[in-house]
Amino acid sequence: MDERLLGPPPPGGGRGSLGLVGGEPGGPGEPPGGKQDIGDILQQIMTITDQSLDEAQAKKHALNCHRMKPALFSVLCEIKEKTGLSIRSSQEEEPVDPQLMRLDNMLLAEGVAGPEKGGGSAAAAAAAAASGGGVSPDNSIEHSDYRSKLAQIRHIYHSELEKYEQACNEFTTHVMNLLREQSRTRPVAPKEMERMVSIIHRKFSAIQMQLKQSTCEAVMILRSRFLDARRKRRNFSKQATEVLNEYFYSHLSNPYPSEEAKEELAKKCGITVSQVSNWFGNKRIRYKKNIGKFQEEANIYAVKTAVSVAQGGHSRTSSPTPPSSAGSGGSFNLSGSGDMFLGMPGLNGDSYSTSQVESLRHSMGPGSYGDSLGGGQMYSPREMRANGGWQEAVTPSSVTSPTEGPGSVHSDTSN
DNA sequence: AAAAATGATTGCTG
DNA sequence: CAGCAATCATTTTT
In the complex, which nucleotide's C1' lies nearest to the CA atom of residue A271? Predict the structure, then answer.
């Protein structure tokens, strides 16, 4: 198949084979020249046909038997000797393409390039969730088809990579064979062979890079499709919202959990800290926007805390949910407690709970209980100014919610 | 199917 | 950089 290359250099088209030995007087073997060589070879291989094969075979044989052959060989050697120095100059060691490094790193991080089992970030997240406590059984399910898609990508990636690898090796062996064959006709130093191999490898690694690139893209798309929480958002579990609401309403006067508190809440709810932050952000603003709508909820949670406190039981895991009044804050809170009785209709609004709450409220007395007095609650610096600061002007009397049927708010709770 | 609820994002502010 | 406000994109409820 390759014999054609071995024939006597054709007047015009033989540049390729000559280039291989670096014997071209005018063209020292600089890198671009090398690339040209391989291109030519490829082209020539492509154009070989069966009939030219026979022809080449014959020519080769003729050449090998030619009486002048030894002479030709020695001449070539001589030429090569003279020009051999120039070939050495082309020695740059490929500065480890940073782009490729980046791609590699990413693929590795994404678990595409790594060990077969590694689930990458997904596995890490799942592990984290698992260790956090069994509060969120649903998020591993959420990742499962993400993971399967990722595995699919990884599979394709690996098989493609292998294909390329194989093709590269195959091609390299071909070229090596070819060079070996040629070495009978003309001098070929092992150095040159190496050079050819490295050139080939470079070519193929360029292709590989493309592969990696597109794999990266696919992963990114997948990621944004599945991991973008906004797309496939799931409501928090019932318990989670419960925990969060509990905290919110028991710190109603200052619903700004410190970093530590957020972390704890996050752990308890099986969500991330930033999710806790989001939740509180949303909650604050939505609460403020329409207090009436939340009144009921507020009461429920107030009762909850109150009851749990009254029973003396620490149903909460440990210290950090101190007894606190839902009504310790600004004026609206007072009215809130007044509204409590009106607002209880739907759920356990029987007199039983209300009386409990009332007694509790009385027992707590006015004012003196800041939130988080009891426990080791940390105040974040900005929390200090918040007490009067957040949702300042929201006096319920003015905010009679449009959706709220009963005239509700009479802030003269003194009855 | 429409409306409400809800978690996340974005731009802006201090 | 945390928080607010508006908004988006879903999910849940009606």
Answer: B7
What DSSP string describes A137-154?
TTHHHHHHHHHHHHHHHH
> Which of A269, A284, A301, A263 minimizes the C-alpha distance to A394?
A284
Round to whole Å and give the CA distance between A101 and A103.
Answer: 5
Nucleotide nearest to A262 (CA to C1'): C2
Residues in contact with A225: Cβ distance below 8 Å, sequence separation at least 6, in sequence order: A231
**Distance measured from the CA of protein residue A145 to the C1' of nucleotide C13, in angstroms:** 28
- pTM here is 0.48
Q: Is the CB of A275 under 7 A from strand B?
A: yes
Identity of residue A98: P
CA–CA–CA angle A358, A307, A388 (5° rounding): 65
Report yes or no: A343 and A396 within 8 Å, Cβ to Cβ.
Answer: no
Number of residues written out for chain A: 415
| Residue A6 one-letter amino acid | L
Residue type, A32: P
* Cβ-Cβ contacts under 8 Å for A290 (sequence gap 6 or more): A399, A401, A403
pLDDT tens per residue across span A157-214: 899 999 999 999 999 999 889 888 888 888 878 888 888 899 999 999 899 898 888 8
- pLDDT attached to residue A312: 61
- Name the closest residue (CA) to the C1' of nucleotide C6: A285
Decide if A40 contacts A101 (C-beta within 8 A): no
| C-alpha span between A225 and A233 (Å, rounded) | 11
